Structures are given as C-alpha cells and as structure tokens.
Amino acid sequence: MSAALAMPSAVTRFAPSPNGPLHLGHAWAVIVAHDRAQADGGTFLLRIEDIDGARSRPELAAAFRADLAWLGLSWHEVLPQSQRVAHYRQAADALRAAGLLYPCRCTRAEIAAAATTQGPDGPIYPGTCRQHPVAPGPDVAWRLDMAKATALAGPLCWVDERRGEQRATPEMFGDVVLWRKDAPASYHLAATVDDAADGVSVVTRGIDLFRASHVHRLLQALLGLPVPRWHHHAVLIGPDGRKLAKRRDAPGLAERRLAGEDGVALAAALRAGLFDTGICLADTIDLLP
Ligand code: GLU
C-alpha cells in the first residue's frame, strides 16, 4: 500500500467527569481507549470533563491521574472543559446565527407534564418554547431546532468500528439542549467541539452512549467539524444487570490503589477478560443505568 493510502494512526481519548471516583468500569474503559491507540502506534489523550462547575470536584482530577498511572497507562493530557468555554460559546453563537437554536424557559416538571414521547435521555421536549417563543436572557437554556437542523444537514452516516456503518438518526432526541442555564455548554456540544479541537480520530466510549453519537454527528455537520470514527465498547455490569457504579458495587480505583493492590496486575486481568465475581461485560445499547 502506498504511504498516501495508509490510515493515519488513531488519536483516542478517555474523558471522565470529576463528579465521582473512578471504578472498575472506568478502568475497563480507559484500557480500551489506551490500547486502541497503542494498537496502531497512535496517541491516547486524557480530557477532564469538568464543564459542570457545581458538580465537579477538582481534587478528583488528581486522583484520576494517579489511578491511570497505577494501572500502568501513559497519556497526553489536553485542556479540561472548564478552560474551553469560549470555544463552546463560539460554536453556540454560530448555530444561533444560523437560526438553529431557540431560547427555552421550561422547567423539568413542565416538560415531564407536557411530554408525550420518551427519548434516549428522558421525555422528548414537547416544543413549547419553539411554538411560543420566549425572550432570550441569562437564565434561559438554548435548544437545537432538530427538524430545521436535520433538514439543513441532510442525510448523514457515521461509522462505529465494532458495529459498522450507521445512518444518523438524531431526531430520536428531539430538540436537545445545547446551552444550559445551570452550567455552560451541554455534554453534546462540549464533547463534539473538544473531540475536534483535540484531533480525536477514534471516539472511544461505552455502548451506553451509542445513541449520543447520532447527535454529535449532526453537530459536526452543522459546525463544519471533521468526522471521526467511533468505537463504542461493551461496559461492565454488576450482579443486578445494571451498569457498574461506585455507589452500588465494588470499591473505587483510588481505594484499591491506596489499599496496596497491584494496578498493573488488575489491568492485565481486565485485558484477559477476568473480572471480579459477579461482574461481566454487556454489549447492548439499552443498558439500565
Ligand atoms: N464525561 C463523560 C462521562 O464521564 C464522557 C462521555 C464521552 O466519552 O463522550 O460519561
């Protein structure tokens, strides 16, 4: 194969939110992302997703780095989300200028009461503030007009390395919030802008976030961003069949690290598919949270 046709090596990332300690499920996710980059001589990035100031605990980011080093991993750290708000604002401004965002003052309770359909993230927004526009202000959220956005973008596809070619169907989310009133950009906007800014070429994350990629693919089209590939990996579930969570299941990585457990041996066990008792991998999109 000529050099010009060779696939560039992958840039992957692990993007934890510092609102709770890392647990075994994160260890699995970070190893997948790390090893996917290593497999073709690529680059593995760590990005701290501290966009939600009220829920973020800065001391956890230091613990995350210690956990990753304990697992025997190395990484390159990129800017945390709290330092990228200006980028998100620019992206939101561009979408607003294109007439694709509208202000919304509805509360969760009002939405729950008026909604008639469920989407992947809860009730689909019933469109109240699209049909009856409200004045913009500092205390409004900004929603994407999904019908307008999908019409403008036209048909879109994306590729998951494990599940193949996908037709983007972001309309299943309805008019998602892209700019929040209680925090800056939403997860969808921030993660999409960041992955492009960081040069991520293979977005690795759990299968439970598979559907979010439909929205991210649409945002890439609207914002003229490069389109990566995706690698949605299986996630660890506990004996109750639900996605592993620190509060319900095993001790966190920091606890195990501080108790003197060998992190490199733990990473080797995970790579070999040996999980703690009662824990196994689930590869279905509809996981119980
Ligand atoms: N910050 C997100 C989380 O911790 C990461 C999602 C992603 O990888 O896109 O769930």
From TrEMBL:
One of its GO terms (molecular function) is ligase activity. It is an enzyme of class 6 (ligase). InterPro entries: aa-tRNA-synth_I_CS, Glu/Gln-tRNA-synth, Glu/Gln-tRNA-synth_Ib_cat-dom, GluQ/Sye, Rossmann-like_a/b/a_fold. Its EC number is 6.1.1.-. Keywords: Aminoacyl-tRNA synthetase, ATP-binding, Ligase, Metal-binding, Nucleotide-binding, Protein biosynthesis, Zinc. Residues 11-262 form the Glutamyl/glutaminyl-tRNA synthetase class Ib catalytic domain. Pfam families: tRNA-synt_1c. Gene3D superfamilies: HUPs. Belongs to the class-I aminoacyl-tRNA synthetase family. This is Glutamyl-Q tRNA(Asp) synthetase. It comes from Novosphingobium capsulatum. The lineage of its organism: Bacteria, Pseudomonadati, Pseudomonadota, Alphaproteobacteria, Sphingomonadales.
